[in-house]
Amino acid sequence: MVKNSNSRREDSLTRERIIDASIDILDGSGESGLTFRALAQRLATGAGAIYYHIDNKGDLLTSACDTIVARTLQTTAPDTTPRDAIRAAALSMFDAIDAHPWIGSALNQAPGQLPVVRIMERLGQQVAAMGVPEDAQWSTVSALLSYILGVSGQNAANAHYGRARGVDRSTFLAQVATAWSELDADAYPFTRRVAAGLREHDDRRDFDVGLDLILNGIDAAARGR
Amino acid sequence: MVKNSNSRREDSLTRERIIDASIDILDGSGESGLTFRALAQRLATGAGAIYYHIDNKGDLLTSACDTIVARTLQTTAPDTTPRDAIRAAALSMFDAIDAHPWIGSALNQAPGQLPVVRIMERLGQQVAAMGVPEDAQWSTVSALLSYILGVSGQNAANAHYGRARGVDRSTFLAQVATAWSELDADAYPFTRRVAAGLREHDDRRDFDVGLDLILNGIDAAARGR
DNA sequence: ACCTGAACACCGTTCAAGT
DNA sequence: ACCTGAACACCGTTCAAGT
Known about the structure:
Oligomer: homodimer
Helix content of chain A: 55-70%
Number of helices of chain A: 10
């Protein structure tokens, strides 16, 4: 903080600048667009220079993800009920993944790493505040976290799939809906029944409803004994 | 079925043989071990020959995953309560992912594809049997599916991480636990408190508890109105 | 200490050529 | 119809050489 205050040279290579450039590339071209060559070109440097500041590609992706997660959780309302705080944090994560789909994939590749821990910590503090007994807090938080990461991963995969095929999200969902409606009627009655509605479903609302289901279960267990 | 009954030539290349070989490689060397070159060598053929039977690597991975998922769901007990049937299906999926960690990753890369649909269909039929009203079935199934896929993905990532570092699962978890216990005490009280217990936690039991939480929420909602 | 960029050891995929 | 295997267009990562 004190010494080496601001980088005098505007173009000096720092870990922060590398991560910011990575986020730009990831937002613009998706996960497959982030290569060391593309990154080096954007930063007007050599590919090898990046390794002076970054361990490897996994480190780069996790750090970029962590920047977004930290930013996202920071801007979440603090003084509400624990349950509302969990919901607010989860929904703001959903929105962040909607805006940066690659995060969903990055989170699922970084078990126990900082970005996941940030989410876990937020959940854990609020689960404790909800009155969940101490010996049940871990599994409760795990359940919430798994649910959030599961939705994240699927959203990321949907975005990735759509991008790869060069179609937008809704046309991709329409293709899936068509495929589902053509499945065998005896073996897949539920999937066929649900296929038609797939197009007009609101993912964010579905996420919220599922969250409510889990929170109800937690509340019941916390009050139950 | 009728014509071309059994491949006369023991070594003729078929889609099925390719997928079986892929499963062997994935089980033995993980996702990064599955390359077209390694596969071609194992099948004593050229790399390009595989493309005559398989669209691309994604298709290959999804198909290999689907083989395991189909096998897994097939061997699940049929005549129990809907709730028990959901639990049995989910736990057998957990065990399958434990045995073949790459499935967790494959499932999360194949949204709306056959292996995921198989799980969804199973869940959907039992959710309907639980008495969940029709207009709530989709979001209910989505919640269960997201939870299962979330746990899958994390298990797969844990296995992948461990393999990459050349350590087994428990030493990897021990490393994570150490890192967690060294986090800032003010910012990460929950994570630090939980770090010590990470080593001896039973993932399968945690998964079961979380599942119960969601199923309780579903039961309450189904009876509630 | 920090950066350069060629080189290494791989990938998935294609495609002319074979049978 | 099915297979071969060289070739193409990439990757992440390393490392001698520069400043």
